[in-house]
Design brief:
Blueprint: E1 2-5, H1 10-18, E2 24-25, H2 32-37, H3 44-58, H4 60-66, E3 70-81, E4 84-86, H5 92-102, E5 106-119, E6 122-137, H6 142-150, E7 171-175, H7 178-182, H8 186-195
Parallel strand pairs: 1-2, 1-3
Antiparallel strand pairs: 3-4, 3-5, 5-6, 6-7
Helix pairs in contact: 5-6
């Protein structure tokens, strides 16, 4: 059974490799704004789950043509704070405004996952779910925020921060699953794999020694 990650995120890839899985990476290229616009008043968990499923479905035909037996994992993360859902800021100006608002506050990082199982080159099963983790932000100085934004790191990550990178200096703590905040929840992924009849231990690397 081949494990395919439908994401370009180095953080997600790093988590999986550290946890014993070497996935193939097939980037979906999904227009997240278009998917979100097609939903009718979704809850935060419904939004991230729908985006994750769209990413998995976008690479399905490509994957099924290469790997006849596979599991495709799509992921999406957003930060919910003050009633607003925040994805990737994209520009320094947006990231700076978000950090000015986030500093010293508490938010919820939602991560949606979707898994499609392929057997014999055909979609056979699918499942999805989400995980929520509370994030307590520090109160960095304006100079610290400017220095962080200047690194470019917060521009391409949900909520304008990372837990496992430079952004970790500005997170006081979390309540929940740290792997979910980094990008892919290992506990949720394990449960979803079981839902489609795959044990995570069968996907671990095997030593050739």
């Amino acid at each position: 059974m081949h494990f395919v990650l439908a994401s370009a995120s180095p953080a997600r890839l790093g988590i999986l490799r550290a946890a014993g899985i070497d996935p193939s990476v097939v980037v979906s290229g999904v227009d997240e704004d278009a998917v979100a616009a097609g939903l009718t008043d979704p809850s935060p968990s419904e939004l991230v789950t729908a985006l994750a499923l769209a990413k998995a479905e976008a690479v399905l035909d490509n994957v099924a043509g290469i790997h006849t037996d596979a599991v495709i994992v799509g992921c999406d993360s957003m930060l919910s704070i003050g009633g607003e859902m925040l994805g990737k800021p994209g520009t320094p100006e947006i990231a700076r405004a978000r950090w000015a608002d986030m500093a010293g506050r508490t938010g919820e990082l939602l991560t949606g996952h979707a898994i499609i199982r392929v057997d014999g080159g055909v979609r056979s099963k699918e499942t999805s779910g989400s995980q929520t983790t509370v994030v307590r932000f520090a109160d960095p100085t304006p100079a610290e925020i400017d220095a962080y934004i200047a690194t470019g790191e917060p521009l391409a990550v949900a909520g304008s921060f990372t837990l496992d990178g430079l952004g970790g200096w500005f997170v006081e703590g979390i309540d929940g699953d740290p792997s979910s905040v980094i990008g892919i929840s290992l506990p949720l992924t394990r449960r979803l794999l079981a839902d489609v009849g795959v044990s995570v231990v069968d996907l671990w690397r095997r030593s050739t020694s």
